[in-house]
């Protein structure tokens, strides 16, 4: 029985591996058509100013609505798109779609101070990125200062000289730059000082332990102080409870986003939220 169990296990694990590889191949093929078949969607998660409670901005997060598999997470298909280069047209679509959608909301009278767009390391090329961003702003009419690009610290630190040049050019366009998942990569603090950045986003893994785990509270507070001293905005990611929100607000963290406020919403649901927030404002006055 033991022998059989072993065989069964081996067979099963080979089978699973094949299934995994096949689905990877299928996914890769299907992803090639996802753009033209309009299966990609942007969802939006609001970010709030902790001092005033006002909407500070939105982060757009891509989803793939596959006809058979349903809604697929970016964690599953962005790595595939990065491997095969599809991230370039997909990233371009994301930039244009986000700028257009938010500019439409602004023209309808909704106050959306900022839209944050995630960038892949593959997009972070001087020849490519600047013309893509310029085009997206021109096509939509979105003011440059409303757009914030999110990059990771590893992306910046591994190609520091190229990164500095690109960041400086983005700054000249008037676009903002945030470091996503801050604290999980390997930032050199001396480099950080020299980079033209606007925002640090405290990684969700540090927010998770607040308020119970003292070390997480200390790390979050240290990042908040670092941001303040460097003159940067700071956003806490993954805020799920009121207790977390209060601790972050009391330590002077500027902004927060997370399930406590709202999960990422489809564009129509986001628009409904903007409508109900606008109603609340008019009811107060
Ligand atoms: P990220 O940029 O760090 O985005 C935050 C992730 O945390 C999102 O997952 C969001 O849905 C999730 N999240 C937000 N609040 C909470 C919370 O309170 N609790 C928990 N547990 N999770 C929360 P999502 O949408 O699955 O995106 C995952 C990652 O995929 C993103 O991490 C980003 O790195 C990447 N990504 C998403 N959209 C794009 C895109 O358009 N382009 C590129 N290159 N990458 C993208
Ligand atoms: Mg992000
Ligand atoms: Mg993040
Ligand atoms: Mg991330």
TrEMBL record:
All residue ranges annotated as the EAL domain in the record: 24-278
Superkingdom classification of source: Bacteria
Protein name according to UniProt: EAL domain-containing protein
Species of the source: Deefgea piscis
Lineage: Bacteria, Pseudomonadati, Pseudomonadota, Betaproteobacteria, Neisseriales
């Amino acid at each position: 029985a033991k022998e059989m169990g072993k065989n069964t296990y081996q067979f099963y694990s080979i089978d699973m591996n094949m299934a995994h590889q096949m689905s990877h191949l299928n996914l890769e093929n299907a992803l090639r058509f996802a753009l033209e078949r309009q299966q990609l969607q942007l969802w939006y998660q609001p970010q709030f100013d902790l001092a005033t409670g006002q909407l500070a901005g939105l982060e757009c997060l891509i989803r793939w609505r596959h006809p058979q598999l349903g809604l697929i997470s970016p964690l599953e298909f962005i790595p595939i798109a990065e491997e095969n280069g599809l991230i370039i047209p997909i990233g371009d679509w994301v930039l244009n779609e986000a700028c257009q959608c938010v500019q439409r909301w602004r023209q309808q009278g909704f106050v959306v101070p900022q839209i944050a767009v995630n960038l892949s390391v593959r997009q972070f090329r001087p020849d490519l990125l600047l013309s893509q961003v310029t085009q997206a702003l021109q096509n939509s009419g979105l003011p440059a200062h409303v757009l914030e690009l999110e990059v990771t610290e590893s992306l910046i630190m591994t190609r520091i000289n190229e990164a500095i040049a690109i960041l400086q050019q983005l700054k000249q366009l008037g676009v903002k730059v945030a470091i996503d998942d801050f604290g999980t990569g390997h930032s050199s603090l001396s480099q950080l000082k020299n980079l033209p950045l606007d925002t640090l986003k405290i990684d969700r893994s540090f927010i998770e332990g607040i308020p119970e785990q003292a070390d997480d509270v200390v790390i979050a507070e240290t990042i908040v102080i670092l941001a303040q001293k460097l003159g940067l905005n700071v956003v806490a990611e993954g805020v799920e409870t009121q207790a977390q929100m209060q601790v972050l607000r009391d330590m002077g963290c500027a902004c927060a986003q997370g399930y406590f406020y709202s999960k990422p919403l489809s564009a129509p649901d986001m628009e409904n939220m903007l409508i109900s927030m606008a109603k609340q404002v008019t009811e107060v006055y």
